[in-house]
From TrEMBL:
<dbReference type="Pfam" id="PF12788">
    <property type="entry name" value="YmaF"/>
</dbReference>
<protein>
    <recommendedName>
        <fullName>YmaF-like protein</fullName>
    </recommendedName>
</protein>
<feature type="region of interest" description="Disordered">
    <location>
        <begin position="107"/>
        <end position="128"/>
    </location>
</feature>
<dbReference type="InterPro" id="IPR024307">
    <property type="entry name" value="YmaF"/>
</dbReference>
Length: 128
């Protein structure tokens, strides 16, 4: 089955001889325009500190049921950062049009005292 996609593919060689490809969708998926969402927040307070994070979700098609992948690096606090990554929940319509997505998870483990933080929130409205 062929699905028309407008975007580009990046090829990456890893140091272990493996390689990967990432597809970046820029304007359409199967003829539907794509959109992204801004997201951000503050992690839980653990081991004496918290971290802030923000970013943009990966693109997804508009007008159909969908979720978004997301990832971001936290702020540098207490001598370290963490990564967050995951997949949002489904689209939740908002008054006045558009939609948001909820997300939650745990950061990667890092720090002098190895630990992770919990995070949760909702994206902003869709952006073309």
């Amino acid at each position: 089955m062929d699905i028309p996609v407008t975007g580009f593919v990046l090829h990456s060689d890893d140091s272990d001889g493996q390689h990967s490809h990432k597809l970046y969708i820029t304007t359409s998926w199967d003829g539907r325009p794509v959109h992204v969402h801004a997201f951000g927040g503050v992690t839980s307070f653990d081991v004496g500190h918290s971290h802030q994070y923000s970013g943009l979700t990966a693109p997804a098609p508009s007008g159909v049921p969908h979720v978004h992948e997301y990832q971001a690096e936290t702020t540098f606090n207490d001598g370290h950062t963490h990564l967050i990554r995951g997949t949002t929940g489904g689209a939740v319509p908002i008054p006045g049009g558009g939609h948001i997505h909820y997300f939650e998870g745990h950061t990667t483990v890092n720090g002098r005292t190895p630990h992770s933080h919990r995070y949760q929130g909702q994206t902003g409205n869709e952006m073309s």
